[in-house]
Write a structure and sequence with these properties.
With 169 residues, the chain is mainly alpha-helical. The protein has five helices and four strands. The protein has a two-stranded antiparallel sheet with strand order 1-2. A two-stranded antiparallel sheet has the order 3-4. α4 (105-117) packs antiparallel against α5.
C-alpha cells in the first residue's frame, strides 16, 4: 500500500530492476491502475542512480528537489548515501505531473510544505490545485485556438498544391 497526499493505493511488485519511465499513453492517471514499482514495499531502497534511471530526472535535479524542500525526507544509508523508497518514487511522479501543469516551483514547494503539516491544510492544498487547474484550462483553450490556426494554414497549403498550375503567357 502506498500513500500519495493522503490517498492510499495498492501497487503490485514487479521486477527487481528499475524500469525507464514510459511516455504517456493518454490514459487517465487518476482512474487507471498505477504502474508497478520496481521493488515491493520493504525492499524498496533505491540509489540515486536507480532513481535517475527510473524517472528520467538527473541526479542534480533530485538533489535540488531535496535541498529546496520539494522532496520529502529521503533516508540515508550508514555511509550517508541517499536511499529512495517507493513512496519517494510516487511523489516524484506527482511532482512531474505538477511540472507539466506549469505550476511554479515555489507553489510546488508550498504544496509540499502544506502536505508535511498534515490534514489541517487540506483546504489550502485544494485551493492551490484548483488555481493550477484553472491555469491549465486557460492554457488548453489557448492551445486549441493555436491548433485551429495551424489547421487552417495546413489546409490552405494543401489546397494550394491541389490547385491547377497556372501557365504564364
Amino acid at each position: 500500500m502506498t500513500v500519495i497526499d493522503g490517498t492510499s493505493r495498492s501497487i503490485p511488485a514487479t521486477s527487481t530492476q528499475p524500469q525507464p519511465q514510459r511516455p504517456s499513453t493518454g490514459v487517465d492517471a487518476c482512474t487507471a491502475a498505477p504502474e508497478a514499482h520496481p521493488r515491493p514495499a520493504g525492499k524498496d531502497s533505491y540509489t540515486i542512480s536507480e532513481v535517475v534511471a527510473f524517472t528520467g530526472l538527473t541526479a542534480h535535479t533530485l538533489r535540488w528537489y531535496e535541498r529546496i524542500g520539494l522532496m520529502p525526507h529521503v533516508d540515508r544509508s550508514h555511509t550517508g548515501q541517499r536511499r529512495f523508497s517507493n513512496r519517494n518514487l510516487d511523489w516524484l511522479v506527482f511532482v512531474g505531473k505538477l511540472r507539466l501543469t506549469g505550476m511554479p516551483v515555489a507553489d510546488m514547494v508550498r504544496y509540499a510544505e502544506l502536505l508535511r503539516v498534515g490534514e489541517s491544510t487540506f483546504e489550502e492544498r485544494q485551493e492551490l490545485l484548483e488555481s493550477t487547474r484553472r491555469d491549465v484550462i486557460t492554457r488548453i483553450a489557448e492551445l486549441h485556438d493555436t491548433l485551429a490556426v495551424l489547421d487552417h494554414k495546413i489546409e490552405y497549403y494543401a489546397g494550394a498544391r491541389r490547385a491547377p498550375e497556372r501557365h504564364s503567357a
